[in-house]
Amino acid sequence: MTVRSLSQEEAVERAAVLSVTSYDVSLDLTGLVDGPDFRAVSTVRFGATPGATTFVDCCAEVESAILNGTPLPAPREGRIELSGLAGDNELVVATVQRDTTDGRGVHRAVDPADENVYLWTTFEPDEARYAWACFDQPDLKAPHAFTVTAPVGWTVVSNSGEPRIEDVDDARRWTFEPTPPLSTYNPVVVAGPFVEVRREVDGHDLGLYARRTLQTALERDADQLFTLTEQGLAFFAGRFGMAFPQRSYDQVFLPDFGGAMENYGCVTWSDTILRRHEPTTAEWQLFTNVLLHEMAHMWFGNIVTMRWWDDLWLNEAFAEFACMWAAERATAYGDTAANNLVGDKLAAYLADQGPASHPIRQPVPTVADAESIFDSITYPKGAAVLKQLMHFVGEETFSRGMSAYFAEHAWGNTTLDDLVASLEQASGRDLQPWRRACLETAGVDRLGIERGDDGLVLTARGPHGRPHPQVVGVGAYRRAGDALEEVGSTVVEVDGERTAVEGLPDADLYLVNHDDTTFATTRPDVAGREVLVGRPSALPTTLTRAVAMATVWDMLSSGEATAAEAVGALTDVLQVEQVESVVEPCLGLALVAAQLWAPESVRGDLEAQVATAARRLADAGTSRQAALRALARTALGDDDLAAVREEAGDDLDLQWYVLQRRAELGDLDAEAVRALEERDPDPDAWIRALTVRAGSPSAEAKEEAWTAMVERTVPAQSARVVGPAFWRPGQDEVLAPYAERFLEVLPRLHDGGMIPGLALTDSLFPVFAVDEAWVRRAREAAAAGAAPVVVGALTERSEEVLRMLRARRL
Predict the structure, then answer these.
(1) pLDDT confidence of 465, banded at 50, 70, 90?
(2) Which residues are annotated as catalytic?
């Protein structure tokens, strides 16, 4: 079936003629144990302008469709026409979705370890129509009630929790109470023989679910997950003036799932985030951020929903901002800002300086276009400008404005105008200049420092000339022995290309944006560059060191610093940094700079430098697991690998890293891989084994890994692990054919939806064995025939690779 993407114009027209009263959805999952069929009967009650004509979305196979007692014709292009509507209407559509392996909206996953079957749905942005008939647009909210018939041994989880359960024949029926009014992308049904852990916290009934083969990992992490969930619910209730209004709050970890999804009251996750080993601090930091991001959506996105996808940025950026806000204020992860600076914010800075740059808020003519802006501009840049807005109006004022916003618009739809109006009323400030400058203009400002006869000057250059209005901190740091101590700081309100900086004493380094309150790349002056690049470890705090690392990395990506300088600065910081959620990403950046950005002539020396830093960390017990992984990934031969093996002992995770590096160095030990796969209790150990083989320079191994990713034998999210192992340095000869093969598969990378489109484009894009001319060809090929989501992801990834290629020539 050819499927049309809903346009904004069509959505406005449809919303003008109807309002949805309720969805009652009956599902039969009993056929999924042995087959692919997902059966649904959707009963939709809605009001309409009498006599109006419109359509309902339905991309599943329709077995019957009846409107007010009258059968309807078959759908065309994923739509069933509805004509001659009454004031009150009832539509009943029976459907079956038969492609539950590679299709959209509904997925049947089989655990390879015990062959148990699990079923999940996920619908953002418009994939509910693949599961059942609905008016699939965000501003037609309605309560959803589910009745699910499932095999006896299964547990069914949905949004509203606390179902009524009855035995029927050889199955079991689960009946869920209607939800509050939700957009169609927000309901969920998951089912299977889950293990379950529950806890009562402050009047909320919290649940965790995972497949049976991950019971040990789920139970190991449950206390921490419940603690984080409790902290997040309390924080957001206080800051938003509204407690989460439902007793149950469930989180379900699923096989073959991509990322995480904020379904109301029932968050779904990729179960790859349940680490098979004891999680490191940085892995817990990621877990915390994602958990709080999805939780923030309960208010911003679910209770109050954007009217159309042109405010998708606000939905996602707000959740990304709020998760870091909550992590810093309410959890043990108080260094979230520094972690973000050496992680996602770097991706946003790079994206905003190349062809992937776009205004944070932009027109979205169709839902297909919405898929293309789940990117680094929408998420980390959007979060950064919202953080700046909170600093601009004040945190308490910001909370007061948000509380008023949720109180006024709960269970409805809004636009950016509504949010800005609430914050303007709370603050008494005109926020329209901020809106125009930060949201409607693409590109990132460059801020710098000049010292002259007329004093200290902050320079500012916008992407198109004049910089954005913003408030930025500047810290002055003076050498005191081997350290740099802060001798003064000030806040500068940028309103032009040159702004005098008052009140700071003479210093060896003036660090712009030292408190990370704005979104702008920065540069030191000539004297400051020597300090910033040569001895960033001397800076006094984790945040200032992270600001320095972000500056050095941006200099690397812009061709103003070499990979050797970047590795030197990062490993210098690793001599002193103790915050493990910052140590681990900095170690990762050093490794990436050495292996992917450095010229071949110095790669080995830089890898050795990273190895020295990793050894020092391991000996000190700081981020020991991450340090030993880095030692394995930089091993230069048998002696190095033997040393890591000795340190690893019975640690299966580290043993996989050792085998992976052996394979990369040309010594693929197939028997050792098979033996470790058999010993590893991880149900996805086969993916670790494939990852090892993917790193080998063997043509046969490359073919196996490529085929597994392209043919989706490997879940799309797992391709993010296999792909980096596939594209390794020093293997250009065997990798060369895959540049052309990437172009061949480009038109179908989005098959199965947005998540595969994003994951596969990023993972399969060549990192070696290509040149700048090939990158231009890839962009042209994408523009000519790829889906918008693939075009967006490829544009962002290709810019990073292009800059790598240039750095390798320095």
Answers:
(1) confident
(2) 294
